[in-house]
Design a protein that fits this description.
- The structure is a single chain.
- The protein contains twelve helices and nine strands.
- It is α/β, with parallel strands linked by helices.
- Strands 7-6-5-8-9 form a five-stranded parallel beta sheet. Strands 2-1-3-4 form a four-stranded parallel beta sheet, sandwiched between helices.
- The longest helix is centred in the C-terminal third of the chain and has 19 residues.
- Bound molecules: phosphoric acid mono(formamide)ester (CP) and norvaline.
- Phosphoric acid mono(formamide)ester binds next to α2.
- One of its GO terms (molecular function) is ornithine carbamoyltransferase activity.
């Protein structure tokens, strides 16, 4: 069997993604009320080791993958790239070949997306993208799981992304054709999503609409999604905060969406910048379910990667 990498949502079949979300929902409900350290029935990844490499900071990804592999019966090793020979110039390819001899699966959070692709090319074990400058596919699986839990049928739903057309936005664009929702993206022209991502979605018959203001994107949406205006690695914070300010999610902006529309944010959030406290701490917000579901969605991703 070919190695199963989870690098980007557009590379997977819609049926595989659907099976992952179904498994995530089932695993979550099967362990309702259990202590978080108890191993799932059948310990599906018993004996397996996950290595995690971090070139950037993380709270959710690090913890949810670590807890997730333990709940599946496996163990993990967390590696900060600065402490590795990688930080002193050892090649990505050699690092991948060496780690493949020790562990069963690797998750990487990297500055440069091409490093994750190069790592996967050289590795002989599955590789999972834990965020790059280009995408954040694990996050979107958790987000879509959360929306389904809230009762939303993704097929035909209208999701609005407002703010920076960044890595998280790209993964939503990749997911639109796979799950059948419409994605309306409102960004300043300068921070619009990459043309490559739009092309990928359109080739797959995805419905992605681009707007240069937040109001048109949010009008009639079932879900409004925000993320930081300044991502890890961005060096133009002042310009971004100024230009993106009109794209902040306020209660007034939420009022343009469908009544009862939900709010998502992958966290970490900056209250008073990309979202007002009244929204993120209000009744429409699903952000902590979203954070929890990183755990359940990634358990399904890991099981898919190892076909277990
Ligand atoms: N949403 C997310 O990926 O969070 P961390 O950066 O804390 O992992
Ligand atoms: N867009 C953000 C997401 C953080 C989880 C970043 O890349 O910093």
């Amino acid at each position: 069997m070919a190695i199963r990498n989870f690098l980007d949502i557009w590379q997977l079949e819609a049926s595989e993604l659907r099976e992952m979300l179904d498994l995530a929902h089932a695993m979550k409900s099967a362990r309702k009320g259990w202590p978080k350290g108890r191993v799932d029935e059948g310990a599906p990844l018993d004996g397996h080791i996950l290595a995690m490499i971090f070139e950037k900071s993380s709270t959710r990804t690090r913890t949810s993958f670590d807890v997730g592999i333990r709940q599946l019966g496996g163990t993990s090793i967390v590696l900060n790239s600065a402490d590795m020979q990688l930080g002193r110039g050892e090649s990505i390819g050699d690092t991948a070949r060496v780690l493949s001899r020790y562990v069963d699966m690797v998750m990487i959070r990297a500055n440069d997306h091409s490093d994750v692709e190069d790592f996967a090319d050289a590795a002989s074990v599955p590789v999972i993208n834990g965020l790059t400058d280009r995408s954040h596919p694990c996050q979107i699986m958790a987000d879509l799981m959360t929306l389904e839990e809230s009762g939303l049928d993704l097929k035909g739903a209208r999701l609005a992304w407002v703010g920076d057309g960044n890595n998280v936005c790209s993964s939503f664009i990749h997911a639109a054709p796979k799950f059948g929702f419409t994605l309306a993206v409102g960004t300043p022209d300068r921070y619009a999503p990459d043309d490559d991502d739009i092309e990928i979605a359109r080739e797959l018959q995805g419905r992605v609409e681009l707007y240069s203001n937040a109001e048109d994107a949010v009008a009639g949406a079932d879900v409004v999604i925000a993320d930081t205006f300044v991502s890890m690695g961005d060096t133009d914070a002042d310009e971004r905060l100024e230009e993106l300010e009109p794209f902040a999610v306020t209660e007034e902006l939420m009022d343009l969406a469908q009544p009862g529309a939900k709010f998502l944010h992958c966290l970490p959030a900056h209250r008073g910048e990309e979202v007002d406290s009244e929204v993120i701490d209000g009744p429409s917000s699903l952000v902590f379910d979203e954070a929890e579901n990183r755990l359940h969605a990634q358990k399904a991703i890991m099981r898919w990667c190892l076909d277990k």
